[in-house]
Design a protein that fits this description.
One of its GO terms (molecular function) is monooxygenase activity. By secondary structure, the chain is an alpha+beta fold. It has three helices and five strands.
């Protein structure tokens, strides 16, 4: 399993707007692509001193499935124009990790 991790930052004033956009448009658009091997997305949010950080963690069966999502340059971030308008800054490149162990209690 591959975990695709991305960070985006917005102002406190734009945080709720971005989160709403992320849920209603960005994630819905990703789901609508019916990407083979894409199984999950998590959205994390935390306030910082002068901005709000968002992290998305997407799960894919393989790097080939990530490439089916964003193309051969699989580290390229996926940030639609409407999201770019409310983000202060964001990762241009996503990070990918192979899940090596998972334990639930």
């Amino acid at each position: 399993m591959i975990k695709r991790i991305w960070h985006g930052y917005t102002t406190p004033e734009n945080a709720d707007t971005y989160e709403s956009l992320l849920r209603s448009e960005v994630i819905k658009g990703i789901e609508g692509k019916a990407i083979p091997g894409f199984s999950r997305i998590e959205v994390l949010r935390r306030p910082l001193a002068d901005e709000v950080e968002f992290i998305t963690i997407m799960e894919f069966d393989s790097i080939d499935n990530v490439k089916a999502f964003v193309g051969d340059d699989h580290e390229r971030s996926y940030v639609p124009d409407e999201a770019r308008r409310v983000l202060k800054r964001y990762d241009e490149r996503s990070q990918h990790y192979e899940l090596r162990d998972l334990r639930s209690y």
